[in-house]
Design brief:
Blueprint: E1 9-13, H1 18-29, E2 33-38, H2 41-51, E3 57-62, H3 68-82, E4 87-90, H4 104-132, E5 135-140, H5 144-147, H6 153-173, E6 178-185, H7 197-205, H8 212-223, E7 233-236
Parallel strand pairs: 1-2, 1-4, 2-3, 4-5, 5-6, 6-7
Helix pairs in contact: 1-8, 3-4, 4-6
């Protein structure tokens, strides 16, 4: 009774790097019609080239989740190219430093991207899903919400906001046949990590970090449950996750 992804129209935000890109590839291999966006043309081009020839299809554009006009452009394009949206996977996010070490504009931009961008995409997706009879919203959060590690005050605040938003939203849209899921990854080898590729490789070998593809598999699991099963929260972290 699993939900098949073949032919599903899925928007993946931040799908040109890291967890987002790994998710785009996996969903396309499953036959989904994927649309995605990122801020940089070169990364978008690389993603589209890598997805060529997969079972499903991948299209995309450059856009910034922190900009209201860009979010509107994305959904207008999704309407035109896909004819609707069945699933939203929100991945677009930025890392941050402690708030007292960031310029005002910089930390506000992180909040606009990591939290407001998620809310803006969710609102637009809900309106479309309701008209189609249902759908699935999936937000990539973080275990930072739980561990509250030093140095992550701004980042943790945005991810805690997503967690509270999603768990409350789920109760508000359940009668609309819309499911809501949060995936909470631990340390993952993505460009967001402030360490070298060699350091990431050593961390993976030591079971201290995960591949982005392992988070994509968790996302796939949540999206493919039966229509009656709602994966509310799924926490996935390396066996030796650092918690401080």
């Amino acid at each position: 009774m699993a939900t098949a992804l073949i032919g599903k129209r899925i928007l993946v935000t931040g799908g040109t790097t890291g967890i987002g890109r790994a998710t785009v590839m996996l969903l396309a291999r499953e036959g989904a019609k994927v649309f995605s966006f990122g801020r940089h043309q070169a990364e978008l081009d690389e993603t589209l080239a890598a997805a060529s020839g997969l079972r499903g299809s991948v299209e995309g554009m450059t856009a910034d989740a922190a900009r209201r006009q860009d979010v509107d452009r994305v959904f207008d394009t999704v309407d035109a190219k896909l004819g609707g949206i069945d699933m939203l996977v929100a991945c677009a996010a930025l890392g941050a430093q402690p708030i007292h070490e960031m310029d005002e504009d910089d930390w506000r931009y992180v909040v606009e991207t990591n939290l407001v961008g998620y809310l803006a995409c969710a609102r637009r997706a809900i309106h479309r899903m309701e008209a189609l009879g249902g759908g699935h919203l999936l937000f990539v959060g973080s275990i930072s919400t739980e561990i509250k590690a030093e140095g992550e005050s701004v980042y943790s605040a945005t991810k805690a906001g997503i967690q509270a938003f999603a768990e409350t939203l789920r109760k508000e849209v359940a009668e609309k046949n819309i499911k809501v899921t949060v995936i909470q990854p631990g340390s993952v080898a993505t460009p967001m990590q402030e360490c070298s590729d060699d350091e990431k490789a050593r961390a993976i070998a030591n079971d201290e970090m995960l591949y982005a593809e392992e988070i994509a598999e968790a996302i796939h699991f949540a999206l493919t449950r039966s229509s009656r099963a709602d994966v509310v929260n799924l926490r996935i972290e390396p066996r030796l996750q650092k918690t401080s």
